[in-house]
Design a protein that fits this description.
This protein has 587 residues and is of the alpha/beta class. Among the domains are: 30-170 and 246-442 and 551-562, 3-Layer(aba) Sandwich (Alkaline Phosphatase, subunit A); 182-238, Helix hairpin bin (Helix Hairpins, Orthogonal Bundle), CATH 1.10.287. The chain has helices at residues 3-27, 56-64, 78-87, 91-94, 121-127, 182-208, 216-244, 263-277, 309-331, 376-379, 406-413, 430-433, 526-543, 553-556; strands spanning 31-37, 66-72, 131-137, 161-165, 247-249, 252-255, 283-288, 338-344, 380-386, 396-397, 401-402, 444-449, 452-458, 467-474, 497-507. It is globular and about 115 Å long. The N and C termini lie far apart (53 Å). The structure holds 2-acetamido-2-deoxy-beta-D-glucopyranose (5 copies). The site of one 2-acetamido-2-deoxy-beta-D-glucopyranose has 3 residues, from loops. This is Steroid sulfatase. One of its GO terms (molecular function) is metal ion binding. Pfam families: Sulfatase (PF00884), Sulfatase_C (PF14707).
């Protein structure tokens, strides 16, 4: 062949090989199924040691994939933990960490939420051509200024499809299940009402006896105030469910108030349909389970079937949902091209006990504390990752990892670049998961209780120790309890905590139950260790910028003009009992 022809055929071959490489790279983009349970404890799944709660499908993931045994939620509370998961950043960086007692959104019509200048993995994966869906609970806000801006809604954060709860499942959402606002209502309404009634009676008596000239206007005022308070309470109780407990599909309210009938089935079926619709494109499915947060619920097939009451029923039904999703992946031949992740947003809620004394919270296994505090029980959560052929089945990783790590891991697998204009706190998990690295990239991790830096974890590069230094610890109540029962959840500041100077130090590698603090007399290097950790905390604090507080009182309050009401309801009743069908716009 003349050289010119040779050259041409060589170039042609080169071009073809480049093309096919690009093609196979596009085709090999893995799908992502991220399953996040709500308030499930690390002591609940069978694969983490539970022998009586049946979770065969979660266990199936563990058998076929990697089990993380020191997987940490970035926060022990829903809203901040989920904000961190979505953005790969500590929640203080996005303003999703409260300075007050209330650390999560309670009303659908509040103005706080995940800010628009934050970038979620969904937004970045969508840019890479992924079909994206969030099915289940969001809890990261809806509106900012009016009830049509959807500034915090999943659709503004990269999700093409959303079906589920914009806020969260709460006891108050289910008639007859009691109230999480119980103590608040008592303080805000019942106590003032009693004071008012007493004052009114006393004044009336004094007036009647002719002992005091009490103007009638004052008596009328007091009576009106009392009636106003009672009226407000009645309105709150009457309207709470429709106004805060509803389902959305996309940007439409689809059921108001939500019905618990077959709810897990309905959402699971929707997730399965999403997978079917998108079998030919790379997809991201975040299946954000509504269970096992209270109010607990289970369909006929699961109610009364477990050995752990209503909690066990709900957990076993959630496991069934996980199984349905694994099954459809199998059926469509997608298993080997899909990374499946399973976790919980935080530890089990220890204080979740009904007025009848029934335990409605899960198990944190051997670990102390639970949801709402940074003892291991609050943040050490299940962490399973399965990807046959890529991740070694049955591998166990005991190194510290975080739910923030999914962000860089997913982006790297999808071939997307990490944002360069901000700090990403998560680390790519693949080297650990594939056994290429034996050490976590997290030398230090910072444990926040809402806005406040609660503890530092240090895994020194040259040692097996896992040091954890608490700057403060919650005051458990009653004395000797494993949680803060009078307040339903532990608070993070003021008289609710005990500060520690020097910090309270544990070595989790020897004392995972956090029973015996290390002291200068038991650990000769105590002061060096504490100084190193304090230094890391100071350096970290310097990287945290002041940002608008999304959980300020103003942003938490119910704002009538942000309230959503289903389109087909009559007048202001906000009642649409039948779930509106998908209007065929789903991607
Ligand atoms: C709602 O707010 C958005 C953004 O602030 C604005 O563009 C829109 O016009 C507002 N809609 C109404 C109905 O006021
Ligand atoms: C729930 O699902 C079961 C079986 O799938 C069905 O028989 C029942 O009617 C459903 N209940 C409601 C309220 O839809
Ligand atoms: C299994 O889970 C149930 C429900 O949370 C709990 O009551 C039980 O103590 C757990 N068992 C173990 C061994 O942790
Ligand atoms: C999926 O991967 C596993 C593990 O590498 C392999 O045994 C199996 O044959 C693969 N299945 C398909 C359908 O390729
Ligand atoms: C680990 O390294 C630090 C300095 O980086 C040193 O002070 C410490 O003594 C080392 N510890 C061990 C167990 O070798």
């Amino acid at each position: 062949m003349p050289w010119r022809q040779k050259m041409m055929s060589f170039l042609l071959l080169l071009l073809l090989s480049l093309l096919s490489e690009a093609q196979s790279r596009a085709a090999s983009k893995p799908n992502f199924v991220l399953i996040m349970a709500d308030d499930l404890g690390i002591g609940d799944p069978g694969c983490y040691g539970n022998k009586t709660l049946r979770t065969p499908n979660i266990d199936r993931l563990a058998r076929g994939g990697v089990k993380l045994t020191q997987h940490l939620a970035a926060s022990p509370l829903c809203t901040p933990s989920r904000a961190a998961f979505m953005t790969g950043r500590y929640p203080v960086r996005s303003g999703m960490a409260s300075k007050s007692r209330v650390g999560v959104f309670l009303f659908s019509a509040s103005s706080g939420g995940l800010p628009n200048n934050e970038v979620t993995f969904a937004t970045l994966l969508k840019k890479e051509g992924y079909a994206t869906a969030l099915i289940g609970k969001w809890h990261l806000g809806t509106h900012c200024h009016n009830n049509t801006d959807f500034c915090h809604h999943p659709s503004s954060h990269g999700f093409d499809y959303f079906h589920g709860l914009p806020v969260t499942n709460l006891r108050d959402c289910k008639a007859g299940e009691g109230s999480v606002f119980g103590s608040g209502i008592r303080l805000l309404v019942f106590v003032p009402l009693q004071v008012l009634a007493l004052a009114l009676l006393t004044l009336c008596a004094l007036r009647g006896l002719g002992l005091l000239q009490v103007p009638v206007a004052l008596l009328v005022c007091l009576a009106l105030l009392g009636a106003g308070l009672l009226g407000a309470l009645a309105c709150f109780l009457h309207w709470f469910r429709p106004l805060n407990c509803f389902l959305m599909r996309g940007r439409d309210v689809s059921q108001q108030p939500l019905s618990y009938d077959n709810l897990t089935q309905r959402l699971t079926e929707d997730a399965v349909q999403f997978v079917r619709r998108n079998a030919d494109t790379p997809f991201l499915l975040v299946f954000s389970c509504i269970q096992v947060h209270t109010a607990l619920f289970a369909s006929r097939d699961f109610a009364g079937k477990s050995r752990h009451g209503a909690y066990g029923d709900a957990a076993e039904e959630m496991d069934w949902g996980v199984g349905q999703i694994l099954n459809v992946l199998e059926e469509l031949g997608l298993t080997n091209n899909t990374l499946v992740y399973f976790t919980s947003d935080q530890g089990a809620h220890v204080e979740e006990v009904t007025t009848k004394g029934e335990r409605h919270g899960g198990s944190n296994g051997i670990y102390k504390g639970g949801k709402g505090n940074n003892w291991e029980g609050g943040i050490r959560v299940p962490g399973l990752l399965r990807w046959p052929g890529v991740l070694q089945a049955g591998l166990e990783v005991a190194e510290p990892t975080s739910n923030m790590d999914l962000f860089p891991t997913l982006l790297s697998l999808a071939g997307a670049a990490l944002p360069e204009d901000r700090i990403i706190d998560g680390r790519d998990l693949m080297p650990l998961l594939q056994g290429q690295s034996q050490r976590s990239d997290h030398e230090f991790l910072f444990h926040y209780c809402n806005f406040y830096l609660n503890a530092v974890r240090w895994h020194p590069r040259n040692s097996t120790s896992i040091w954890k230094a608490f700057f403060f610890t919650p005051n458990f109540s009653p004395e000797g309890a494993n949680g803060c029962f009078p307040t339903h959840v532990c608070f993070c500041h003021g008289n609710f905590v005990t500060r520690h100077h020097p910090p309270l130090l544990f070595d989790l590698s020897r004392d995972p139950r956090e029973r015996s603090p290390v002291t200068p007399s038991t650990e000769p290097r105590f002061w060096d260790i504490v100084a190193t950790m304090q230094d890391a905390a100071d350096r970290h604090a310097h990287t945290v910028q002041e940002v608008p507080n999304q959980l300020s009182l103003r942003n938490l309050l119910w704002k009538p003009w942000l309230q959503m009401c289903c389109a087909s309801s009559s007048g202001l009743s906000c009642q649409c009992p039948r779930e509106q069908p998908d209007r065929g716009r789903s991607p």
